[in-house]
Amino acid sequence: MNHNRAVELLRSTGALMEGHFLLTSGNHSSIYIQCAVLLSWPRVAGRFARDISEHFKSREIDTVVAPAIGGIIVAWEVARLLGKRNIFLEREGGLMTLRRGFSIREGERFLIVEDVITTGGSVLEVKDVIEKNGGIVEGFASIVNRSSGRFKPREPYHACVEMDVPIYSPDNCPLCREGIPIVKPGSRGLV
Question: N or C: which end of the chain has fewer CB within 10 A?
Answer without folding.
Answer: C
